[in-house]
Amino acid sequence: MTAAGFKKLINDPFDAVDEALEGFVAAHADIVAFAEPRVIVRRNPSAGKVGLVVGGGSGHEPAFGGYVGTGIADAAACGNIFASPPPNVVLAAIRAANHGRGVLMGYGNYAGDVMNFGLAAQLASAQGIEVREIRVTDDVASAAKSETTKRRGIAGDIIVFKCAGAAAEQRLSLDEVERIAVKANAATRSMGVALSACEVPGSGRPTFELADDEMEIGMGVHGEPGIKRGPLQPADEVARILVDAIVGDIGDRGRGEVALLVNGLGATAYLDQYIFYRGARRALEASGLTVVRSYVGEFITSLEMAGASLTVTLLDDELLSFLDAPASTVRFTT
Question: Do residue 224 and residue 141 come from a single domain?
Answer without folding.
Answer: no
